[in-house]
Write a structure and sequence with these properties.
The chain is mostly beta strands. It is built from one helix and nine strands.
Length: 134
């Protein structure tokens, strides 16, 4: 018979650094591992937040649709750069159509990298907008 965790019990994250690449923040426990918002951008009432879990040394983009206009498909991206400024990898997540809807991408990890988040629209209705790097 297995043990059943009590409410409020915390578990250590199951990944760290680059080992978190393309894993979900909730599934790994990184969503609650000392998370902070490092950058926030808005593009036509779509918001992207660069979330950093210091307990996992990993980042992801959390997106929210604050627009009542659901005509445009949009995506949030997280990008990972090396110290020379070369793009290593990016991940995306579709921004929900519903007002107030939110979602998040999988993570990219490693403390020796730089990260930024972007928002783009399918069909280029609005120009892509990106944060500064963190």
């Amino acid at each position: 018979m297995g043990m059943i965790p009590l409410a409020g019990t915390s578990f250590a994250a199951s990944c760290s650094g680059a080992g978190c690449d393309n894993q979900g923040p909730r599934a790994t426990g990184c969503e609650t591992a000392s998370v902070s918002t490092q950058r926030t951008i808005d593009n036509n009432s779509r918001k992207a937040e660069l979330r950093w879990a210091s307990g996992c040394s990993a980042a992801w983009v959390r997106v929210t649709n604050n627009s009542s206009n659901s005509l445009y498909n949009s995506y949030g991206y997280i990008e990972k750069y090396d110290s020379a400024g070369k793009l290593i990898r990016s991940l995306s997540v579709r921004i929900p159509d519903t007002t107030g809807g939110s979602d998040w991408s999988n993570m990219l990890g490693g403390a020796s990298y730089y990260y930024r988040v972007c928002i783009s629209f399918v069909g280029n209705e609005y120009p892509m907008k990106c944060s500064t790097k963190f």
